[in-house]
Amino acid sequence: MEFISSENGLKMTTVGLASEDGREIYAEIDDISLADECRSFLRYAGEYIESRHAIEPGEKLGYGYWITKLVEDDKRGLCFWEYGPDTVEYVPGISNTLRFWRGFVA
């Protein structure tokens, strides 16, 4: 499994993920300093999927103590969203998840 980043580096996508349905996963961040953590997160999620865990849109995946959710885009890719700070609804991206993880492991 490899990763590609968008031109501005704020979106990272897997390439060659061995998911059962051939979908790739991706995540967006709001700060380029989170790029390494984003890659680690996608590696963690990709390894979970490659270990034969089928994934579906709407599925939740914990990372540290924060919850993320897979949302299907219009191209059948799966994007990670995270709980908003109010923990009432999910919002696009995983920046807060990665910041919380950074503080958790520091």
Task: Reconstruct the topology from this structure.
Blueprint: E1 2-5, E2 11-15, E3 25-28, H1 35-50, E4 60-63, E5 66-72, E6 78-83, E7 90-92, H2 95-105
Parallel strand pairs: 3-6
Antiparallel strand pairs: 1-2, 2-3, 4-5, 5-6, 6-7
Structure, described:
With 106 residues, this protein is of the alpha+beta class. The protein has one domain. The protein has 2 helices and 7 strands. It has helices at residues 35-50, 95-105; strands at 2-5, 11-15, 25-28, 60-63, 66-72, 78-83, 90-92. Strands 1, 2, 3, 4, 5, 6 and 7 form a 7-stranded mixed β-sheet that branches. It is globular and about 35 Å long.
SS-based class: alpha+beta
- Give the N-to-C terminal Cα separation: 27 Å
The domain count comes to 1
Helix content: 25-40%
Strand content: 25-35%
Q: What overall form do the CA principal axes indicate?
A: globular
Mean pLDDT: 88
Secondary-structure element series: EEEHEEEEH
The largest sheet, given as strand count, sense and whether it forms a barrel, is: 7 strands, mixed
List low-confidence stretches: none
- Radius of gyration of CA atoms, rounded to a whole number: 13 Å
Count of extended strands: 7
- The helix tally amounts to 2
